[in-house]
Structures are given as C-alpha cells and as structure tokens.
Amino acid sequence: MGIADRIKGLLGFFRRTERHVQQHTRQRVDHVILLDGTMSTLDEGEETNVGLIYKLLAEASASQRIGILYEAGNQWSDWSKTLDIIEGRGINRQIQRTYGWLASRYRPGDRIFLIGYSRGAYAARSLAGVIDRVGLVRADCATERMVREAYRHYQFDTDPATASEFAKAYCHPDVPIEMVGVFDTVKSLGFRAPFVWKWEEVKHSFHNHELGHHVRHGFHALALDENREAFTPVLWSCPDGYDGLVEQVWFRGSHGDIGGQLNG
C-alpha cells in the first residue's frame, strides 16, 4: 500500500472515530502542522514522507475544511547557514511560529494534527508540549507579544501561579490534540561535534517532548537498523492514567529510510 493510500485511510479513521465536538458558529476545521527534517525538499521525487503527506493534503484541502502549515527543516544554501545546521538554531523560532499560526486559527471544536520527521518530529512533539505546559492562546489574544510570553513560560518554567494566571487570562481552557504522528524523532538538535553536542543538549533540555494526556493519538515510526549516535531515537513513555492510543513501531531501515529521505 502506497503512502497516499495510507494517509487517506488515516483521515478516514479519524472521521469514523470522531469524538464529542463543542458547538460553535462555524464548521469544524482540521489544522495540520507538518515539520520536516533538516535539508528536506519538496522537489518531485525527493520528498520525505512528511513532504508527501503535505502534497496529498494540499490536494484534498480544496474540498475539505483543512488548514495546512508545512515547514522544511534547516537548509544549507550557503556558508552563512552552517551554524544554523550545526547548532540546530531554528527550533525555538519554529515552535513559536507554528504556535502563533495555530493560536490565530484554532477555535474550540477544531482538531489538531502534528506531524514531523527527525528534528521536525522533535519540534512537533515540543509544540504539543507547549500546549500541555502553558496552553494555547486564544485567537483574540494571539499577538506576537502574547506568543513570546507563552513561550517564555514554557522555556523558563516560570512560577506555576504566574503561568496559571496567564493561562486563565489568555488561553483556551482545554485544547486536545487529535494526533501527533512522527517519523524517527531524534534528540540531537545540533550537529554532534566533539565537546559541542553535550552543551547543545543542555541548552535545549527545557523542551517537553513527552506524551501528554491532551494527546489522543500518538504514532511513532522508528528505524530498527540505525546505529549512528546522532540519530538515537527519543521514545515516548505513557504518563500514568493515559487513556489515549499510542503505537510505536520499529521498521527495518535507517533513519533516512523511515523518513523517506533517500539521501540520509
């Protein structure tokens, strides 16, 4: 079965298993955020699985109520971009951008789907972590300043009382995430150069990539034959009392095989 058929079946599955939807003045919208891996491309024949999913959804969006945001991973266009790739610099900016995009569009009753590959998978899981730890700012409050403030509470793990006051004043009371679907999440947010990667991991250690109770479905495809340290996968563990559906499956192949990135 091809990737297109699998995704069509997945969308059909979620339609059949639809849960309670709150009443609101407009029809429900499915918001899909796709975060691709480093050096990814949408060039024909060179797409990752995330890129293929994006193209499939883009075709369907004309007849479906779907909002789509696709972001490629860090690109090396010239030497000025080298440090971005080595240090994984873009992840915080990316999470804030995607959080702001979602906050400005989400309404109660909508559904959220987060999809990612490699570093993009880590970013997708961390975006879910922001919503879990802080909440999702309401559309009427989704200014750049409020998005930065929400991320500040997430990044610096501010006083719980202060964070709670922020959430009550500016965030939706409850935001479930219908699905987080990721391909081979990696922990290394920067290039593992000697003496550098340990510092980089400490710098990014605040990210919440764990599975939260607000995530209804979690799907994770993992590379069974990958043995490079830089591609050590980050598995989920279910929190106590979790009642969602989680599937983590090992597939034969390397990191690039699982993500569909044939050159990596």
Whole-Å distance between the termini? 23 Å
**Low-pLDDT runs:** 19-24, 78-82, 194-199
Helix percentage: 25-40%
- Shape summary: globular
Q: H/E series, N to C?
A: HEHEHHEHHHEHEEH
What's the number of domains? Answer: 1
> What characterizes the major β-sheet?
6 strands, parallel
Structure summary, number of beta strands: 6
Walkthrough of the structure:
Mean pLDDT is 83; it is low at 19-24, 78-82 and 194-199. With 264 residues, the protein is of the alpha/beta class. Strand 1, helix 2 (49-60) and strand 2 form a beta-alpha-beta unit. It has one domain. Helix content is 37%, strand content 16%. Helix 4 crosses helix 5 and helix 4 crosses helix 6 (144-156). The protein is built from nine helices and six strands; from the N terminus they run αβαβααβαααβαββα. It has a six-stranded parallel sheet, with helices on both faces.
Itemize the secondary structure elements and their pairings.
Blueprint (H helix, E strand, L loop, with lengths): L2 H14 L13 E6 L13 H12 L5 E6 L10 H6 L3 H15 L5 E7 L1 H15 L10 H13 L3 H11 L6 E7 L13 H7 L11 E9 L21 E7 L3 H5 L5
Parallel strand pairs: 1-2, 1-3, 3-4, 4-5, 5-6
Helix pairs in contact: 4-5, 4-6
